[in-house]
Amino acid sequence: MATPLIPSKSVNAWIYLDEDEPKGTGYTTVNSSYQSLVNNNVYKNTDMVLICFFAVIPDNQGYYTIDIGNATTVHPDGSTTAQYLQYTIQDARAQNADVKLLATLNYNTDNLSQIFSSNPDQWPTATANFATNVKNYLVANQMNGLDIDWEGSFASAITRQQFSMLFTAIRQAFDTNTSSYLYLSFSPAEVGNLDVATMNSCFDIVNLQLYSGFTYVSSFVNIGINPLLMAYGAKFESNYQNATNAYDQAQQGFKYQNQSYVYNNITQWRLNSDNYEFEQGQQILLYQLAYGVPGSSFNDGAIAGKAGNPPITTLAVSGGDVLDSLQATNSWVSNGTENILGLLQHGGNGGNGNTIQLSSGELITEVYGYTGIWFGWEVVAQLSVKTSAGHTYGPFGHLNNVSATTSFSYTAPSGQSIIAFNGNTSQVPLASGGTTMVITALNVSFG
Question: Hey, what's the signal peptide range on this chain (predicted)?
């Protein structure tokens, strides 16, 4: 049996293929959450993508295998969920050759327990065949492992003996005659009927659902689970209420400590809810924080161009000493339906947030401000916004501790408006210690 490959560091995320956001879009729709993943290079900032949800189904030999749940469901663009799976695999691999793609099992009560008949003598054969079928499925679909969503009645539907037999068989199958390592991931909200020895010998990572409000690392460490397996489970959905746990603290990346425990891995639920812009932006930010990446470029103009250059209708701006972040939302009406192009937040979570909501027909016609040197870093220090209705918003950024300022201004040509921002962000050190992400270069696209 191979030694589990406990990641020394990883930034991971789930994706739920049954949901389409914004409503009415499909995978291939230009303004869908899935195309946002591609356009914003989110897969480049993700080590493991855990794809939800897979079902355990009968094979043609009287045993069981897995397949993407609701595989034949037709989405708004005419694609099936099975096609969504293939699109996701192709897009993720095209962007990040090293990304690990795992199949997350549905947590329906009998999803795993159905493998076990009433006759215990049949269990070794049943689990061995299931394990082989899972391995063959993953290899055939160019996937890298299996993830177990462990919660509710699912976590008590099999016994500890069955747990040990099943996952030992899967680990042995994964380690036999495969050209690349297959991961076994565990994503619990509770302890349930897990077997400690099997967990420590067979699993590679444990993604704690800390956002549940009732999941604690101590529950797992105290029963003997190897702490090095633990990953911080974060959640950034807009309907999340328990902000005292993962919602806020996960933004600090790998520095969060609970009972003197430092997490080396982090996994967030998920990349494509109705709050996908924030989720995907946080994924990029977490990756930069985890790996010490100094920053990245963004090009919202290219993304807006694919949608036909719709105008900005909402602009979120955050500024403190300098310009911390920008996030534009563009929209347009087609066949009587409003379409939303949700662009990601660029920059970090510092400063004071402001939201500019433009009225119908109002366009951004000019932005201007200053760049400068802030604690040794060249940054965008201040930004103001003018619109076709004669309104001026800002300035955002107080120019505190900024020297060597240089003014800049972008004005839209007659008949056009500013439809997107492009530039760079960087992770910069603070005088008080720590780091923050800010805008370090900025220009615009007209349309």
Answer: none
